[in-house]
Design goal:
Length: 270
């Protein structure tokens, strides 16, 4: 079977070693996406930033000056959470179609199929890094955020968040092959998840009956921990660290297992 790059019984270390051997392919797929998706445009990568930045301005005006949300330093508070959300939502949406979109090479060339969702996440991570590279200096210069040791924790939280997003991408890349309407389901599910994530509000602002639901949202731990580290310059609470760790381990373990288990059947379904 040409597209079955590895057998489902191959060990995790073996799959990682083979994926590492194909790192040039991952780099090629990443650069191809960056070049192709900005080809023929005047602003190139800037278009990817304009959409979330304009959306941020709209939300900020509405919730800060219309609804008058009483959160100190609201713009960096909202900006950090929203950029993390944009990275996650775009990554998983694209991952749901990444195997189907590359059906030709999946059928013809034996290679680790994990490279496809990995390249998808890295593509959106590139744009996320550019956006953060613009946002962080503005936070330090104009919005009163003080750089300190909290930046180390911000880096660790964002690294864990990338791992969680990759795990979700593996899940959705698998589901996207067997359930072609997964993209349509995501179009409904992601807006619900957006409003159920403390992006423009704090968990404490929600009614008591809703707080356990917000706490069960895996994105909450990552976003709150990043805010505590960056905006308050403090170490995230043990609760949030354990929450991030549990979600990361559970998501990665299950995502790798599901993708490994069903990827040999991808060719049959394409």
């Amino acid at each position: 079977m040409p597209g079955a790059a590895v057998t489902p019984n191959q060990s995790l270390s073996g799959r990682l070693a083979r994926l590492l051997a194909y790192r040039t392919l991952v780099k090629y797929l990443l650069l191809k996406d960056i070049k192709v998706k900005s080809r023929g445009t005047y602003l190139g990568v800037a278009w990817t930033l304009l959409n979330p930045l304009l959306t941020i301005i709209v939300y900020f005006v509405i919730f800060r000056h219309v609804f008058r949300v009483a959160i100190p330093n609201y713009l960096p508070f909202f900006l950090l959470g929203f950029l993390m959300w944009v990275f996650f939502s775009r990554s998983v949406s694209a991952a749901a179609q990444c195997i189907l979109a590359s059906g030709g090479i999946v059928k013809q060339s034996p290679f680790p199929l994990e490279t496809l969702p990995l390249a998808t996440v890295l593509y959106h991570l590139f744009h996320h890094a550019v956006a953060l590279g613009i946002a962080l200096p503005l936070m330090f210069i104009f919005w009163g955020v003080k750089p300190g040791r909290g930046l180390v924790w911000v880096g660790l939280v964002l690294l864990a968040f990338v791992g969680f997003t990759l795990a979700a991408a593996l899940w959705l890349a698998t589901l996207g092959v067997f359930f072609r309407d997964s993209r349509d389901i995501l179009e409904v599910a992601l807006p619900i998840l957006f409003w159920g994530t403390p992006i423009f509000y704090t968990t404490e602002m929600a009614p008591g009956i809703v707080r356990p639901i917000l706490a069960a949202n895996p994105l909450s731990s990552f976003i709150v921990a990043a805010r505590v580290s960056l905006l308050e310059g403090q170490t995230p609470s043990l609760e949030h660290v354990l929450g991030m760790g549990c979600w990361l381990v559970l998501a990665l373990a299950s995502g790798v297992w599901v993708f490994s288990r069903y990827s040999p059947r991808f060719v049959e379904e394409l």
